[in-house]
Amino acid sequence: SRLAVLDISWFTDSMREGRPVTVETRHLTDCSPPTAVANVSQYACQRRTTTENHNKIFTDVMEELAESSEFNESKGPCLAFRRAASVLKSLPSAVHCLEAIQGLPCLGEHTKAVMEEILTFGRSFKVEEIRCDERYQALKLFTSVFGVGPKTAEKWYRRGLRSLKEILTEPNIQLNRMQRAGFLYYSDISKAVSKAEAKALGCIIEETVHWIAPDAILALTGGFRRGKEYGHDVDFLLTMPEMGKEEGLLLHVIDRLRDQGILLYCEYQGSTFDVSKLPSWRFEDMDHFQKCFLILRLEQGQVEGERGLQSDPGDSRGWRAVRVDLVAPPVDRYAFALLGWTGSRQFGRDLRTFAYKERQMLLDNHALYDKTKKLFLPATTEEDIFAHLGLEYVEPWQRNA
Ligand code: DCT
Ligand code: MG
Description:
This protein has helices at 9-16, 56-71, 75-89, 109-121, 125-132, 134-143, 150-158, 164-169, 177-184, 186-189, 195-212, 222-225, 249-259, 334-342, 345-359, 382-388; strands spanning 193-194, 217-221, 230-231, 234-239, 263-269, 290-299, 319-328, 361-363, 368-370, 375-376.
């Protein structure tokens, strides 16, 4: 079946069709809102957002402000900045004056003030202040280590630690296994993964999975499915056409990767999936499918293209470490898992909010539940889920919200 092959068609399709499609750009020298602005939805799932961002000067700043709010546990402002950044990312052209954003949803007073600063001075003093902040710097650095979340980062900061070296030399700090791997491969996994590297890993995973189970269903998800050029990891979804057959699959795949000598680190989580539980309303909740967080060894010779591996100049190892996530849902949950794991995070968050507020439905990575009809709505494809929600289908490469 078509599904039984690795879905990397977006690589070739988007190249052939010249995606991401460039929406006609309109220069806003007259400072009037572009016609499209009039009906921009407050929900990312009703907007089309390619990887082409015409408003990066604003959205980069807003994402830093969101991150800083997150470190301060200010959930409201954090989400507000993320929502604002997401709306600006969907615009077909660059914003040149404040009049041009009139009528746009999700842009509050805070956001507008920041945008005004950038429009007037070409920079944001607010964000520059934050960048200089010792706590922000330390938390950003610490959370850049695989396995270190905001809580651990805060704990280390409170102990007076400021650099990675200080953490490694502090005798009283107990690193867990994931964090030890995070430090061990820090310079590799803090480097972006390129599309060519993701493609090479796709081939390795495909070969490994189909060597074990020729009829396994495998798909690339995450940012690379959305057509991104770079990512922090490579995400895959795998399942079996027959219910229940997916159960031992992931452990087999892990063993086979180990046998090939390319498994540098593996954190396996068994399934905690329980059909009797309603979809979870909280987006931040992890799903319950069996999954593994891996670090794999990628050889130079496996990566196509002139540039090959993303590595430091002078690095002659001929390989690099890459973060890979594998998730294995049962086949009847595959469409929900694919939609959730394709992201973006903001797109997923808004899909759930839209479902809840506009349709009285609960959506998560496992299921869609209609609260009015009191029933679960089944889906075999992502298109089915959009249809249940009464939404126009949004292609993966338009979900970069
Ligand atoms: N996801 C999810 N539930 C979580 C965490 C993530 O459904 N608890 C989804 C949202 C995005 C997707 O999985 C992949 O996650 P990341 O790899 O973190 O994001 P990405 O979009 O692939 O970005 P990056 O390029 O940084 O990997
Ligand atoms: Mg990813």
